[in-house]
Amino acid sequence: MTRSVFVRAKDAQTAYLASLEVDARFDELRDIVRTCGRFVELIGFHHEITANLLFLRFSFTTGDASGHNMATLAADALLKHILDTIPGISYGSISGNYCTDKKATAINGILGRGKNVVTELVVPREIVHDRLHTAAAAIAQLNVHKNMIGTLLAGGVRSANAHYANMLLGFYLATGQDAANIVEGSQGVTVTEDRDGDLYFSCTLPNLIVGTVGNGKGLGFVAENLERLGCRAAR
């Protein structure tokens, strides 16, 4: 899970020097995060400087939770520590919109937010013909024309798929997730190939934000669905 903050500096040079300080103190910042909970761990950060503003995008592991609240609490602790120990900067915001939460953005598509999942299967030629009533070559061509060229013409952001959001919304509601995360979850790429008549089909979702513990997971139907999915088994 990611959360971004931003701070203000006198000028761009001061913001740049502050970013170097943050990088040099990474181990120290990891220790700060460890005081925020048993399951949250700082694993990296990226920064961006615009004018005199320094944006910091922190990445965390959050155990079996999707981690929205854990990431925010950890980012708040990091921001306080950074302001207390690095000179020349002042408070901007606990959320800098560089995370990016519930928005389809290039940074999420490139770096990911949540789980980065690749699924793939090969559908035999006979099933493509008898059940789908088409050919692998036709599906592969349609995927290029519709999902790739069509999305390009529409100005899609790091995305080439028909409608991941439809299926994700159903899954998120059934398993107690934050349904608004289908916004970034809708980003992804569908790839198809004709393999001598067999159909190779793959979906890549870089922003799958899911958890098996936390808010919403205690509802009866949610607990039942998580049980059926094997998400409540002892580990």
TrEMBL record:
<dbReference type="GO" id="GO:0004420">
    <property type="term" value="F:hydroxymethylglutaryl-CoA reductase (NADPH) activity"/>
</dbReference>
<dbReference type="InterPro" id="IPR002202">
    <property type="entry name" value="HMG_CoA_Rdtase"/>
</dbReference>
<protein>
    <submittedName>
        <fullName>3-hydroxy-3-methylglutaryl coenzyme A reductase</fullName>
    </submittedName>
</protein>
<comment type="similarity">
    <text>Belongs to the HMG-CoA reductase family.</text>
</comment>
<keyword id="KW-0560">Oxidoreductase</keyword>
<dbReference type="InterPro" id="IPR009029">
    <property type="entry name" value="HMG_CoA_Rdtase_sub-bd_dom_sf"/>
</dbReference>
<dbReference type="GO" id="GO:0015936">
    <property type="term" value="P:coenzyme A metabolic process"/>
</dbReference>
<dbReference type="Pfam" id="PF00368">
    <property type="entry name" value="HMG-CoA_red"/>
</dbReference>
<dbReference type="InterPro" id="IPR023074">
    <property type="entry name" value="HMG_CoA_Rdtase_cat_sf"/>
</dbReference>
<dbReference type="InterPro" id="IPR009023">
    <property type="entry name" value="HMG_CoA_Rdtase_NAD(P)-bd_sf"/>
</dbReference>
